[in-house]
């Protein structure tokens, strides 16, 4: 039986989420995280020895070291959501050193943040926790607000900061997505040449994806295809939002779909919807880490543990959780990160 505190946190959803058995695609087809994940999946690939070493650095740090699962603290919201909006709940995080301290105290595998944040503290902390540099951003000072990601620095500079990986976002479906795909693909190729791992924030952005009845930005079919595009440009790890619905292609009448996508490949259960995302990451060969989402206050703990259970039981690789951790007192943020990590450490919580 899973740890009692996890059951208590999940409340009425505990039975369903912890005991659900998927009847769609067999879990035996998945490349699931584990201590030997690098040897099973990446050793036969084209990834160089330095890239595999960088991936090993990520996988062998923090409380989840050696498990094949990842817990990453991402703090790029100062650009993506404005610094004032992001850090007003806890102003200590205007200082980038506290971001790194939270990741260390929280037992994370890595901290993912901006060039500027890491540059200020690189000499003090690059050897204490793996760095992931987020190399592009959507700044919010252009009016009207646009959906575009632009480069804020070079892959070479990320390496000079001591980073073991670079992260980037593509807004699939946006007007500028083709340019972003080209830019990020070139950046990831360079990162691999320099021996760094690559993580793609695989997001969707298009006003047409949101109707009066449903927001299909988080549909399993649309986000799953975004994941498939992401692994095609050789992202080692995919970051994606947790799916909340399905049938975006069908409802919006675009792209291509067939009925089996919404029955044979995925039911309406949240674990099956997330598994469809994993399937589109080459059946888990590229790990899926789901994002925690915005802070909602009192429900943050329950929602974070819920997301972790769904991700793990679907075949995912972990969680990348930021705002729910840093928009509260540091010790509470540490405790939240630890509880999420406990899901991945609990051997009684297995694949559905």
From TrEMBL:
GO terms for molecular function: fructose-bisphosphate aldolase activity. Keywords: Lyase, Schiff base. The keyword Transport does not apply. Coiled coil: none annotated. Its EC number is 4.1.2.13. SUPFAM superfamilies: Aldolase. The keyword Cytoplasm does not apply. InterPro entries: Aldolase_TIM, DeoC/FbaB/LacD_aldolase, DeoC/FbaB_aldolase, FbaB-like. Belongs to the DeoC/FbaB aldolase family. FbaB subfamily. This is fructose-bisphosphate aldolase. It comes from Pontibacter rugosus.
């Amino acid at each position: 039986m899973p740890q009692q505190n996890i059951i208590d946190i999940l409340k009425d959803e505990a039975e369903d989420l912890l005991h659900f058995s998927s009847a769609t695609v067999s879990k035996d087809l998945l490349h699931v995280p584990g201590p030997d994940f690098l040897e099973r999946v990446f050793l036969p690939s084209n990834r160089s020895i330095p890239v595999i070493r960088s991936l090993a650095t990520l996988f062998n740090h923090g409380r989840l070291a050696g498990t094949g699962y990842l817990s990453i603290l991402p703090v790029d919201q100062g650009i993506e959501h404005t610094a004032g909006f992001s850090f007003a709940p806890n102003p200590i995080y205007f200082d980038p050193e506290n971001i790194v301290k939270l990741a260390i105290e929280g037992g994370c595998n890595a901290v993912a943040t901006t060039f500027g944040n890491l540059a200020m503290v690189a000499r003090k902390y690059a050897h204490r926790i793996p760095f992931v540099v987020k190399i592009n951003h959507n700044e919010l000072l252009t009016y009207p607000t646009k959906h575009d990601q632009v480069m804020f620095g070079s892959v070479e500079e990320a390496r000079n900061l001591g980073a073991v990986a670079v992260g980037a976002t593509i807004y699939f479906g946006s007007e500028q997505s083709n340019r972003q795909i080209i830019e990020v693909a070139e950046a990831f190729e360079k990162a691999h040449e320099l021996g760094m791992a690559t993580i793609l924030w695989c997001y969707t952005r298009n006003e047409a994806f949101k109707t009066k009845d449903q927001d299909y930005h988080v549909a399993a079919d649309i986000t799953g295809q975004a994941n498939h595009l992401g692994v095609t440009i050789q992202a080692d790890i995919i970051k994606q939002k947790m799916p909340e619905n399905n049938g975006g292609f069908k409802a919006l009448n675009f792209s291509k779909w067939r009925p089996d996508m919404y029955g044979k490949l995925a039911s309406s259960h949240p674990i099956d919807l997330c598994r469809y995302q994993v399937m589109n990451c080459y059946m888990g060969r590229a790990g899926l880490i789901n994002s925690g989402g915005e802070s909602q206050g009192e429900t943050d703990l329950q929602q974070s543990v819920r997301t972790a259970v769904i991700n793990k039981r679907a075949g995912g690789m972990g969680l990348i959780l930021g705002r729910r951790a840093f928009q509260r007192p540091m010790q509470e943020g540490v405790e939240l990160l630890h509880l999420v990590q406990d899901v991945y450490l609990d051997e009684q919580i297995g694949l559905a």
